[in-house]
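Technical annex, item 7. During the second reporting period the consortium partners agreed on a shared format for inverse folding records so that results from different sites could be compared directly. Each record opens with the tokenized structure and is followed by the designed sequence. A conforming record, contributed by the partner at site C, is shown below for reference.
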């Protein structure tokens, strides 16, 4: 049975959605990143980068969320458009999310919620970093919103892994934008709401309820998530 190394954060949640859409049997292996379990030698043997998610699929190890999306969808022949134009669009938007929206969202969350504590500064003392990453997140969402104003899905008329990749981060937009969430990007919100209503997405979102993870964001958690930063701050 496929083993899925999981923590309830955006990148693993993308993979959870695809696994549920494919209706594949899988074993969830909890990796509590708040406790630093991603840094153990056992897990580093699976993902040398010490991040989640990762899978072991019939003896084949794959890490990085978008690599896993491509591996599973290609192997099962689902959620990847076959028409050349739609396939190219799927790849383009998948990479746009993977190399743009995902890392910029992660950095925005870091500087909005964590960097000030690590550096012992008030949040307003880090205006350049905060504004840079929040503005880049906004730019990426505006590009996505324009695409979805003229296309039902990112690849065209076919629901694909590119949409699943977007859903993983966009459903957590409140961490960047607060209560307004995706209100400024109505076309992105339309797609996220549509995906969230799918039975597979409901099951993916509920996956964390089957497991127990640390929730306190204390000093142990900061050292586990930001080891280089905490060393520098010390």
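Designed sequence (site C submission):
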């Amino acid at each position: 049975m496929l083993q899925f190394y999981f923590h309830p954060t955006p990148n693993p949640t993308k993979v959870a959605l695809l696994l549920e859409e494919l209706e594949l049997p899988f074993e969830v292996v909890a990796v509590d990143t708040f406790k630093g379990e991603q840094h153990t030698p056992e897990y580093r043997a699976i993902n040398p980068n010490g991040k989640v998610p990762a899978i072991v699929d019939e003896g084949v190890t794959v890490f990085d969320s978008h690599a896993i999306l491509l591996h599973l969808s290609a192997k099962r022949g689902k959620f990847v458009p076959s028409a050349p134009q739609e396939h190219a669009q799927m790849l383009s938007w998948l990479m746009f999310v993977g190399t743009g929206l995902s890392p910029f969202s992660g950095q925005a969350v870091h500087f909005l919620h964590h960097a000030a504590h690590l550096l012992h500064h008030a949040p307003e003392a880090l205006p350049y970093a905060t504004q840079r990453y929040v503005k880049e997140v906004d730019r990426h969402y505006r590009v996505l919103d324009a695409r979805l104003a003229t296309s039902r899905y990112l690849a065209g008329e076919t629901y694909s892994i590119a949409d699943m990749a977007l859903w993983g981060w966009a459903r957590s937009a409140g961490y960047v934008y607060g209560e307004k969430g995706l209100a400024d990007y109505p076309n992105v919100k339309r797609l996220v709401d549509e995906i969230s209503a799918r039975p597979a997405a409901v099951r993916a979102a509920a996956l964390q309820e089957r497991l127990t993870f640390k929730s306190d964001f204390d000093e142990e958690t900061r050292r586990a998530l930001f080891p280089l930063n905490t060393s520098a701050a010390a």
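The chain is about 55% helix and 10% strand. The first strand starts at residue 2 and ends at 6. All partners now use this format for quarterly exchanges.
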